[in-house]
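Bug #2210: token dump truncated for ATP synthase subunit alpha, mitochondrial?
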Amino acid sequence: MEFSSRASELATLLESKMTHFSTNLKLDEIGRVVSVGDGIARVYGLNEIQAGEMVEFASGVKGIALNLENENVGIVVFGSDTAIKEGDLVKRTGSIVNVPAGKAMLGRVVDALGVPIDGRGALSDHERRRVEVKAPGIIERKSVHEPMQTGLKAVDSLVPIGRGQRELIIGDRQTGKTAIAIDTILNQKQMNSRATSESEKLYCVYVAIGQKRSTVAQLVQILSEANALEYSILVAATASDPAPLQFLAPYSGCAMGEYFRDNGMHALIIYDDLSKQAVAYRQMSLLLRRPPGREAYPGDVFYLHSRLLERAAKRSDQTGAGSLTALPVIETQAGDVSAYIPTNVISITDGQICLETELFYRGIRPAINVGLSVSRVGSAAQLKAMKKVCGSLKLELAQYREVAAFAQFGSDLDPATQALLNRGARLTEVLKQPQYTPLPIEKEILVIYAAVNGFCDRMPLDRISQYERIITNSIKPELLEELKSGLCSLFRFFILDWIVAGLTTAVSTFIWNVSSESGEESRQLSLPALESESTSESIHTFRAGAENEATIYHRIRLLEGQQYFNVPPQLHPGDYERLVREHFDQAEPNIARIMEVSPYENIRQEADAFIQAKVASVDNPGDAVQRKHIERKLNSFLQELTQHQRQSSIYRKFYKHFTNEDLRRLCGLPLP
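Reproduced locally. Full output below:
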């Protein structure tokens, strides 16, 4: 009985084993290490391995197959090769190098393989993407047309960058290349905070290649204090990491950025810097015994960068309309932009921001060489308001540089040349900006508009920064909100005349108040005083210049300045009459043509009555009967103008600049 029970148990066990028996065999192709040294392992036996495939050594260290030769395979080791010895087994993984990607990566610091190094534990929900993928094709792309604001006046005005563009930052060491990149990341904080959808946000990926660990830690602290880590990913391959990791880091960061691009979102990736990646690739290639070329770089070093930067693109609407913007950084030696790697990357990218050591040491920061810096496609994405405001800025700076070079050889300059030098010096001063203080685009437009239109010409150079702060701090939030809604939306690209008029109002009102600070009548202003030994004299001169340079139309807009600024213009009653008369008599020639053509002959009479009514309202502000009379005259005047509005294209041009609200403000009447 005992024997039969054991036999039945054995039969049952064999039956269960045979039921679950599978003929599928798991085969691992393995090889053996022939030689190892300097991070390169020669392996024999991996006959079916793919180029770029990951392998695993017996010690657990991973590597990637780069050289596929007849006798052996050249493998670069991701880590220390001290634990690898001759004869060790090497196993194929069957997968190309991939890294984690997704929103779970935001706020984390990872190495080139996507392994967290910030001490905050493992990654949560994420997907994995290959580090080497093909760039989007021509049909999948769309032209760059959306702006990517950096928060730097010099960049957004002179070398604008669009979403999907590749803009190179090039310069010697210690010229502020990384500072531009960090300011761009910090500027996205307020842009993302007021975004209403994912398609308006901009996520950032910063790839640190060959930098010191202390530098990366300092960067993490800066971004953390500014709450910018919440939309950023940091990929770090520091100077102490092996060359293969420094080579791989840009591709890993690009794969993480492509997650946002391919899912209809927008991302910015910064490669800091690609010079060190090229050096790491040269080291690997020479150790793999690849033939060297110019400057000992391998022959495919151009392809190294081109296949990386071509992955930055603006996708078409059919493929999600996402984008990946690239800001590669290249370090030059003694300003030599004609070296091998700089010329390669310049030819690949869509423009470059050139930084100069001389400008940096002169205190011009960011130290951008306006003559050499260019954006080849970014102007199509530049806000129309900014383009209209800074249209002549680059030309004026170029003329200033040319004249300044000759002015140092002579002391007697004609007034036109002296004016050009004064304007150029102030424009250069306006474009200066401290580090880690990006400006919103609406404030950039306001400041640049003031500089380009001569409102800074009579300000002392050492007061330009104070003047800029006063303008940006004195302006009411209501106007800034108007500028944000009209200018900062990603889908509004048309600048209307009322926007420029609003800027004129803001700047002109400020000048009127500051210029009257030392006037005959004492006026209480809440603006900071401009401290100077000759304040009174310079203010009077400045006021006269503002009177001459501002057009009558600009001055007529002063009357409504109180709605934009915390400080009302406080004009005298006589100023109202004079400005209104000048507006009707001189500022609009088309009005005179309207008056000469029937049935508009009575407009002039109504205008005169209108002015007299205004004067009466100023003299007797409390007379209710007089105010009703003024309102009746105004309504009659507006009705007659409205009746002829559709009949005259000339009138429509006039009416665009002089609306019902303008007339009511001039009369001092409440708005409807």
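Output looks complete on our side. Confidence is low (pLDDT under 50) at residues 487-502, 515-604, 644-659, 662-672. Marking as cannot-reproduce; reopen if the truncation happens again.
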